[in-house]
Amino acid sequence: SLEVVGFCRSSWGVTLVDVLVRWIYRSCDKILVSSKGFVASIQARGVSEEQILYFPNWVEPVYREISLKEKTGKFFEDLPRGFRVLFAGNIGEPQDFGTIVAAAERLKPYHDIHWIIAGDGRMAAWAKTAVSSRGLATHFHFIGKYPSEKMPELFSLADVMLVTLKKDPGLSTFVPGKIQSYLACGKPIVAALEGEAAHLIRETGAGLVCPPGDSALLAGEVLKMYQMSSEDRLKMGSRGREYSDKNFDRSMLFQKLDCWIREADGSFSGNDLKS
User: The dihedral of CA 174, 140, 137, 218: what is its sign?
Assistant: First the structure.
């Protein structure tokens, strides 16, 4: 992670962190991973498979499907009309905004496709400059950051949600937390990434996935969503929400965690939830 985000580029720094991580792992009875892609890396540092437990990011209760009655129509009344592709979250180097901008440029003839960017980050200024220089100002709409409690309403106004990660072996093991939020809100997803996150979206049947860094393929997937009927997009979103309810519910996951802890200290009961 430190290398991918550019925080630590020296080999000695990475080695020092690795030594610290190995010491932490040796000191733990159990290690929880939010992505199954982390397992191999942890095992390579001397941890047995039995010590590693899959504990995915849970969905906060605020993220849920919004009904028509709950939409105020005021908070986001300035959103453009048309087909809305919404990206929410950090605008940084790992999110590979260059590919997003290049994909939007390929779809420039479709004047009613709008790219809504809700968030901020170290690459935000670069992204705005790139959009302007390519004549895409009328296609992109940078609306800034909003509190979590407003995000489900914003999501409900989008036709499709967007998630991207740049091509990198380290990033392929990650599942961005926004994916769980998108799924919980019942929205279809277009993704340009690989690894665990790509597998999750395909497994849920909630969206379309293409390899990272390929603007032509990303533009193609967005166009497929654009040409798809609203009913088919709704079915995609519904599949994602159902998967989220079964696998990312916070109460269910914390109950499982509680059982793991009591099992470890000998207070686990046969009537408790099995891991």
Answer: positive
Contact 133, 119 (CB under 8 A): no
CA-based torsion, 239, 170, 44, 255: positive or negative = negative
d(CA 87, CA 100): 10
pLDDT tier, 75 (very low <50, low <70, confident <90, very high otherwise): low
Take residue 68 and report the two structure tokens written for it: 């028509």
d(CA 166, CA 174): 12
Helix orientation angle between 215-227 and 97-106, rounded to the nearest 10 degrees: 60
Helix (H, G, I), strand (E, B) or coil at 54: strand
Whole-number pLDDT of residue 11: 76
pTM more than 0.70? yes
First CA to last CA distance, the chain: 29
| Assigned token pair, 253 | 């996951």
β partners of residue 53: 32
For 216-250, write each residue's pLDDT tens digit: 999 999 999 999 999 999 999 999 999 999 999 99
Q: d(Cα 206, Cα 201) in Å, to the nearest integer? A: 6
Q: Is the pLDDT of residue 275 over 50?
A: no
